[in-house]
Amino acid sequence: MSTADLLYSEAEDDLRAAVRSLLTDRCPPATVLSEAESGRAYDVALWRALGAEMGTAGLLVPDKLGGQGATAREAAVVMEELGRTVAPVPYLTSAVLATAALLGCDTDQEAVARLLGGLAEGRTVGALAVPLSTVAVAPGGGSGAPAATVRADGDSTLSGQVSGVAGAAGADVLLVPATGADGYGLYAVETAETSVTVEPLTSLDLTRPLAAVTLTGAPARRLAGPGRAEAAIGRALLTGAGLLASEQLGVAEWCLTETVRHTKERHQFGRPIGSFQALKHRMAALWLELVSARATARYAADALATDSPDTPVAVAVAQAHCAEVAVHAAEECVQLHGGIGMTWEHPAHLYLKRAKSDEIALGTPGRHRQALAGLVDLPAPTG
Fold it and tell me: Can you give the pTM of this predicted structure?
């Protein structure tokens, strides 16, 4: 049995340096705050630079289909850096969830290959039309597709509604699970159709807005039928949850780094507040949590990259742990900044909102622990 490699490769370090340089230049906290209040679904110019020009949109797509032919390990590095900046771009929703769902379909189909090529080049933005809260790992173990709330009328039109869809606002194409006379299937719907309504919802995390999607006889193309559709969506959700752990790691890293910097500069009683023992203990405890979070996130990314049979376990462990570490780090960041941490002008609230939003995305920590118990045959206590 091969051993997982949790260290970053030279290529991954180079990718990190390039992505961090771009985000440092184009996505400072002031820009994120401004974009969050703009009402736009995402930063179009930043996404063009990151997804299309740098090529990160196609990391998970094979070379022969127009992508970079990389793996989940490289995508995880990008997710870490996006977490460090809470960048308002559709990477998780388009380059991970939608792309992974399409990769689970028959890529020899012209329609599937064309969509994948568009997503990989960053010229098309996609979204998987399931609620962001959809559980990625089933309570009994394994992954599976959610029940469809959309009805397929033959192979050509869809009707119904899906609420809480991340990335739907601003997407060019929606990948919609639906059921019809032929059973469960995955369909592609262009958002430009007049029969498609995408209504923005009030979201806690303004950098990753949610929307309600309503289809009224919307023209659609069937991409996968029963069996294959469930497997494709289940794998996409599992991939999304595994890589979301890396984003949560990035959120926690920024929060700890920023808190340490602030406590070194902020003085009380003639001393930096970071020199007070009580604060040292809190930051040291958070650092230990972050180290273990990095290990679980890296293991999940490596398991996805190598298609390990332990992938559901790795993802469940990573989500159960990293989600709570990110929230704790963000809460500590706000509290240890004192009054300034409570203001709208300071970016700490963006990280807390992203951490809380991520905590319920693709399954809460409690749901992942429940799934993990089933996967490792650990029965719940009785009596």
Answer: 0.93
